[in-house]
User: Fold this.
Amino acid sequence: MPLLDVQNLTKLFALKGGLFQKQQNFVHAVEDVSFQIEKGESFGLAGESGCGKTTCGKLLVRLIDPTEGHIYFKGEDIAYLKGSALKEFRKNVQMIFQDPYESLNPRFSIMDTIAEPLIIQDIGTPEEREELVANALKTVDLNPPEDFIFRFPHELSGGQRQRIAVARALVINPEFIVADEPMSMLDVSIRAGVMNLLLELKERFNLTLVFVTHDLAVARYMCNRVAIMYVGKMVELAETEELIGNPYHPYTKALLSAVPVPDPKEKRERIELRGRVPTPINPPPGCRFAPRCEYAKEICTQQDPVLTEVENGHWVACFQRG
Ligand SMILES: Nc1ncnc2c1ncn2[C@@H]1O[C@H](COP(=O)(O)OP(=O)(O)OP(=O)(O)O)[C@@H](O)[C@H]1O
Ligand SMILES: [Mg+2]
Assistant:
């Protein structure tokens, strides 16, 4: 049984219309997305800004409610849990956000910040919490913990703040973590440190990781499988090296053509995408990529392509399929 089995997951955001507007408009942030994640995997969600990566991540840890679909966590559908059942589920999962400036409350000391999930979950006495927080700080290499525990976020560097966010996620000992672009605000020089820390902690605590990124080079370093999203839809899913070496979807090909390839002999032709990313508000039927796709046929604007396995473990949603 996979750790997570996501079936037809959909999230629509209703837009507040004008006073006299008859039609209710919806942002189709995530639409009819299905995939499975095995325990111990590092699963990448990649794609351009606005394609629904963060929304998908928030749904998986149930920070937001889905509109439709199912999320089976160890066989139990957690998609619509409420109240104490939701709180119980959330003992197993955590999310780390992109921007440690935003995600850490400036008025909270490091102690308060990291202890917050423990307090929410009623774990430990104040003394026990202090010890758990100190251990979490050691785990993310902020040593000695006494030097950090009573400080405030603004007194720390960006890299240190991101480590605090990681410590906060780890303190309740979760099984599953969604890390939402956790390095994108950091200088390149400290990114590698945070990436390696996350990979190391994943092994050490047998974590399952969903890693959200718009950067395929980062996904290649961090993830054993990657899913590519485009305007709320999953267009391709495969093992990372397979996806990079043998992309099927015209959109994936275009994305990859923009990533610098380490081997200069392996020249890739740069594919320029025509037009713009379409709006996710009330999208027309058919493939979301069709208006920009040089291979688009009539069927592409009439029917939604279904994510289909084209080779072992390699899934593509395209009528062209290669
Ligand atoms: N609370 C909300 N209300 C209305 N629309 C929303 C809300 N949250 C997200 N959206 C919209 O849903 C779509 C997907 O957003 P999301 O933040 O998931 O994208 P993303 O892939 O994480 O983008 P980025 O790379 O910029 O972080 C976008 O069009 C966004 O504007
Ligand atoms: Mg995002």
Remarks:
- The chain has ten helices and twelve strands.
- The domain at 1-87+202-252+277-282+302-309 is CATH 3.40.50.300 (Rossmann fold).
- The radius of gyration is 21 Å.
